[in-house]
Amino acid sequence: MMSSVYALIADAAVAAPAVTAAPADNPAGQGWIMFPVIGVMFYFLLIRPQQRQRKEQEKRMAALQKGDQVVTTAGIYGLVHHIKERTVILKVAEGTLIEFDKNAVSNVIKKDSAATESK
Description:
Layout: H1 2-15, H2 27-62, E1 69-72, E2 77-83, E3 87-93, E4 96-101, E5 105-109, H3 111-118
Antiparallel strand pairs: 1-2, 1-5, 2-3, 3-4
């Protein structure tokens, strides 16, 4: 009886077609799609805003005029006394002039707003 059961199982295994897994989508192929998507995300979230910020800073430095009130990256407030090619001389107190690199000026406060704030 046992041998006939083994024989039936063996016949069924030989007669049944081999079951193979259906070819799944290639996960490695999906990775190639993600690289450009991540690159585009980096561009719009990181690179483009930094470029825009740098251009705005360059415009501010080009429009810098004598008498403008500015704030440096160190947090020092001063009035523009003299502008050179690469540096700016700021008057921070009566009789105190400090020379800064133009890139050290982080914010320009217009003359009109400085006058209204002091009132």
